[in-house]
Write a structure and sequence with these properties.
Layout (H helix, E strand, L loop, with lengths): L2 H28 L11 E5 L1 E6 L3 E6 L5 E5 L5 H9 L6 E5 L5 E2 L5 E9 L4 E3 L1 H35 L13
Parallel strand pairs: 4-7
Antiparallel strand pairs: 1-5, 2-3, 3-4, 5-7, 6-7, 7-8
Helix pairs in contact: 1-3
Amino acid sequence: MTPKQFKLTLRSFAFIGTVMGIVVLILSIRGPSTFPERQNLIPITGAVAWSRADRYSVTFGLAGDSRTFSYAHKSGDRGTIASALSDTSQQPISILVHPDDPQQGAAGGPFFQVYELSSSKAPMRSYAQVKAAWASDYRYGYWTALLAFLAAGFLEYTARRVPPNNSSKPTPLR
């Protein structure tokens, strides 16, 4: 690889890192502002008909309700929530969802995000706890964006330090 090609490669990666940093920064800034206000949420109560835990969430359905609900991993305490949903002694459960905001899942149909969950015995995750967990998750985005900008800057600095390949010029005497 010639020095010119090497510089072009380094600058291409620096550009990609800068673009990724900008995208992550925009998502991190925009994220907390898209969290719904409590007064816009509606309570739903019912017995859990089915539940399924995966890497990113716990999805479940309530008896007599055709909608799918999802409790996100980033909302915190997913293990406790998953066990409460499968425990019949904790039924019925109460949840808060945004009725006008069904989201589209990558692997399936639409679902409603759960912003608060309580069992018949005790509150499990309050709206304030879920909101704080989401805000904490977005803080990682600021660090990721900073690292992407630093990596892009380092790549650009390295590209500027690559010596040119001019074999026609004599090496200067020092």
